[in-house]
């Protein structure tokens, strides 16, 4: 049974940093497309960062240069290092695991590359709050 558990969220001041962690059980991270999504109150869930099975990474424009997604295969753990945080980064952050390689999916008028949200496995989420 697949199980994902996020941790590392919290409250920080604008400009601060946090590192989110997603521990997995039930399969190996390195064999599937993994991603971080976030959802702010009243907004759709959005893809933030993706790491493919070949190690390639993809970032949303809003976080490029500030966030880094990485994976420790030995620990079967996914990370999201978030630097230079802004109030707009306030959201609940979720890790997601696809069923295999990353896919191109269509959502909210845009095409994305990552685990298809309609079929991905999800963690329970961790809250990130950035104060101005």
Percent helix, as a range, is: under 10%
Could you say which overall geometry the principal axes of the C-alpha atoms support? Answer: globular
SS-based class: mainly beta
Report on the biggest sheet: 7 strands, mixed
How many E-type strands?
13
> What is the distance, rounded to the nearest whole angstrom, between the alpha carbons of the first and last residues?
40 Å
Low-pLDDT stretches: none
Oligomer: single chain
Q: Which percent range describes the beta-strand content?
A: over 45%
Number of helices, where a helix is a run of at least 4 consecutive DSSP H or I residues: 0
What integer is the average pLDDT? 94
Task: Give the helices and strands as they follow along the chain.
Answer: EEEEEEEEEEEEE
Query: What gyration radius follows from the Cα positions, in whole Å?
Result: 14 Å
Describe the structure.
With 132 residues, this protein is mainly β. It has strands at residues 3-7, 10-13, 18-25, 34-39, 46-51, 57-59, 67-72, 77-82, 91-97, 103-107, 110-114, 121-122, 126-131. Strand 5 and strand 6 (57-59) form a beta hairpin.
Q: TL;DR?
A:
The strands form 3 sheets. Strands 2, 4, 5, 6, 9, 12 and 13 form a 7-stranded mixed β-sheet that branches. This protein has a 4-stranded antiparallel β-sheet with strand order 1-3-8-7, with no helix packed on it. It has a two-stranded antiparallel ribbon with strand order 10-11.
Element layout with pairings:
Elements: E1 3-7, E2 10-13, E3 18-25, E4 34-39, E5 46-51, E6 57-59, E7 67-72, E8 77-82, E9 91-97, E10 103-107, E11 110-114, E12 121-122, E13 126-131
Parallel strand pairs: 2-13
Antiparallel strand pairs: 1-3, 3-8, 4-5, 4-9, 5-6, 7-8, 9-12, 9-13, 10-11
């Amino acid at each position: 049974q697949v199980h994902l558990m996020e941790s590392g969220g919290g409250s920080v001041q604008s400009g601060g940093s946090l590192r989110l962690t997603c521990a997995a059980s039930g399969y190996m991270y390195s064999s599937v497309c993994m991603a971080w999504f976030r959802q702010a109150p009243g907004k759709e869930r959005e893809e933030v960062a993706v790491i493919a099975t070949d190690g390639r990474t993809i970032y949303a424009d809003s976080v490029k240069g500030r966030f880094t997604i990485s994976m420790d295969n030995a620990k079967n753990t996914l990370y999201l290092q978030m630097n230079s945080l802004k109030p707009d980064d306030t959201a609940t952050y979720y890790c997601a695991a696809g069923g295999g390689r990353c896919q191109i999916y269509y959502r909210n008028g845009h095409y994305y590359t990552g685990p298809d949200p309609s079929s991905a496995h999800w963690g329970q989420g961790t809250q990130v709050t950035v104060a101005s």
